[in-house]
TrEMBL record:
It comes from the Bacteria. One of its GO terms (molecular function) is oxidoreductase activity, acting on paired donors, with incorporation or reduction of molecular oxygen. NCBIfam families: PRK05320.1 (NF003703). SUPFAM superfamilies: Rhodanese/Cell cycle control phosphatase (SSF52821). The lineage of its organism: Bacteria, Pseudomonadati, Pseudomonadota, Betaproteobacteria, Burkholderiales. The keyword Oxidoreductase applies. Catalyzes oxygen-dependent 5-hydroxyuridine (ho5U) modification at position 34 in tRNAs. GO terms for biological process: tRNA modification. Residues 178-272 form the Rhodanese domain. Keywords: Oxidoreductase, tRNA processing. This is tRNA uridine(34) hydroxylase. It catalyses: uridine(34) in tRNA + AH2 + O2 = 5-hydroxyuridine(34) in tRNA + A + H2O.
Length: 346
């Protein structure tokens, strides 16, 4: 953009007399403006607006005993690079969702991986046109994903993983390489599942991940004689879930490496219905890893589909069809709560 807000592809026409309304002059102006507009449109077609914000999700279970010093160091690095998002630090490891420019993201990852503990950190990546986070937070936690099962220590050993390409092959065939039927187990919360999940996946309608152990233990018969693949958004929940399931005797349990996001990245949306809920202001990603039309109600946190958004009961930032009746007695929509900051999970 040039000073004054003018695009370099749409220059001003200057030096025109104020009384230039004679037909000849006016015709020349119209032709000039048409030519300029044609060039502008041609330029946009050849150089479309790129999605310039890089979004990364990563986690690693690794013993961290220096959180008191690691936290301010990571905060300073992210602020210096103008990154936004959330990093969770716990004695069991790191969990992060960050967004920023390509050079900034690459610089952050290079610095983080210089620490031997994070040298092999695996990252899932997607792009967006705008920054999906409002601020930068580095937070200490008891667990990077709350399960309330201290005996589950992924840093001491994990369940076998399955890569997306192999999983797709299993799902295509309807069985694993040993001939056992394959069961997909969704370890996410109910509202996430409602946005999209794998075909015929088992969903126990969890409201929080800490409910998972008791519910699965009471449904062991659902998995007898089958190969179980636990999955979640980015891999962190299904990693703990798979360890627990093996601990209670479900030996043919695997975790989907990298979660749904890595599956989308490697093989697309095969055997998957809908989108994938993400914990930022994009709300959900399609199988091609672009933001979907799905939104989340800031009043009640319910998922709002494209169809819901066409309902007269939907008012963005205030209410949705799921909570409109309960809010009907409110004096004015101005009393609606402010937009909530999304929680972090994966």
């Amino acid at each position: 953009m040039r000073p004054g807000g003018r695009s370099e592809f749409f220059p001003a026409v200057t030096g025109m007399p104020s009384d230039s309304v004679k037909s000849g002059v006016k015709s020349k102006c119209v032709r000039a403006e048409s030519a300029i507009m044609a060039f502008y449109c041609f330029t946009l077609l050849r150089n479309p607006v790129a999605m310039s914000i890089v979004n990364i999700a990563a986690y690693k279970f690794v013993t961290l005993d220096d959180i008191a010093t690691l936290r301010p160091a990571l905060q300073a690095t992210c602020q210096a690079l103008d990154l936004k998002g959330t990093i969770l630090l716990a004695p069991e490891g790191i969990n992060l969702f960050l967004a920023g420019g390509r050079e900034a993201i690459d610089a952050f990852l290079a610095e983080l991986r210089a620490d031997a503990r994070f040298a092999d950190l695996a990252v899932k990546e997607s792009l967006s046109e705008t920054q999906p986070f409002r601020r930068m937070l580095v937070r200490p936690k008891k667990e990077i994903i709350t399960m309330k099962m201290p005996v589950i220590k992924p840093a001491d050993g994990r369940a076998p993983g399955i890569d997306p390409v192999t999983l797709k092959r299993w799902l295509d065939a309807g069985r694993d390489d040993d001939g056992r039927p394959v069961v997909m187990l969704d370890t996410r919360n109910d509202f996430e599942v409602d946005v999209g999940t794998f075909d015929n996946a088992i969903d126990y309608r969890l409201t929080k991940f800490s409910e998972f152990p008791d519910i699965v233990a009471s449904h062991r018969e659902d998995f007898e004689g089958k190969t179980i693949v636990s999955f979640c958004t980015g891999g962190i929940r299904c990693e703990k879930a798979a360890i627990y399931m093996r601990d209670i005797g479900l030996e043919h349990t695997y975790q989907l490496d990298g979660g749904i996001l890595k599956y989308f990245e490697d093989v697309g949306g095969a055997h998957y219905q809908g989108d994938c809920f993400v914990f930022d202001y994009r709300t959900a990603l399609t199988p091609d890893l672009t933001p979907s039309t799905t939104k989340q109600c800031f009043a009640c946190r319910a998922v709002v589909t494209a169809e819901d958004q066409r309902s007269p009961a939907y008012v963005e930032g205030a209410q949705c069809p799921a909570c409109a009746d309960s809010r009907a007695d409110a004096d004015t929509l101005e009393n609606a709560p402010p937009a909530a900051t999304p929680a972090l999970s994966a």
